[in-house]
Amino acid sequence: MNKYYIILLALALPLVFSSCSKDKEDLLQGTWERVNVENINDPYSYEWVFNEGELTMYRRLKSDPSVFNVTDRGFYLLENTPLKTTLQLVETSNEVWNEKWDVVKLDDGQLIIKLDIVGGIIMREFVKKI
Q1: What is the 3-state secondary structure of 67-129?
Q2: 18: confidence class by pLDDT, cuts 50, 70, 90
Q3: Are 79 and 90 in contact (CB under 8 A)?
Q4: 101 and 113 in contact (C-beta within 8 Å)?
Q5: How many angstroms from the chain centroid is the CA of residue 51?
Q6: Beta-carbon neighbour count of residue 59 at 10 Å?
Q7: Distance CA 26, CA 122 (A)
Q8: Between these two residues, 30 and 6, which has the higher pLDDT value?
Q9: Which of these, 59, 58, 45, 51, lies nearest to 75 by C-alpha position?
Q10: pLDDT digits (tens, 9 = 90+) for 35-53
Q11: Cα(7)–Cα(33) distance, rounded to whole angstroms?
């Protein structure tokens, strides 16, 4: 009898984790505005748009949001395991970005990612716009 429970559990776990992965992918989709703690007086806001594997980064003038330009483009892959979630960025023009970031938090309103680099850590915090 225990053998059947183990087989059932082995079949059910991948379904549960693939469902969680899809949920996180759905949460990531959309426009995220970076919280710029380095320079709160910056005249620009910075947005990252995640759309079905494609990433577009924008810089928008705070005083006139209709004035904006694309600062970078690339691709991403959200990987979800039972222990952690990572966000792999590729083919951006900034080689530092093209790494596997740890997803510290991802919900319907906030995204926090972290990248360990030589000599420190890069953290980026975002709030969901759309």
Answers
A1: CEEEEEEEEEEEEECCCCEEEEEECCCCCCCCCEEEEEEECCCEEEEEEEECCEEEEEEEEEC
A2: very low
A3: no
A4: yes
A5: 11
A6: 16
A7: 25
A8: 30
A9: 51
A10: 998 898 999 999 999 999 9
A11: 45
Structure tokens at 75: 């691709």
Q: Tokens 């748009």 appear where?
A: 49
In the numeric block, which tokens belong to residue 43? 């005249």
Tracing tokens 């426009």 back to the chain, one arrives at 31
Identify the bridge partners of residue 118 per DSSP, sorted by sequence position: none
Place of tokens 């924008």: 58
Q: Which helix (H) or strand (E) holds 11?
A: helix 2-28
Nearest alpha-carbon partner for 28 in 101, 123, 120: 101
Question: What pTM did the predictor assign?
Answer: 0.80
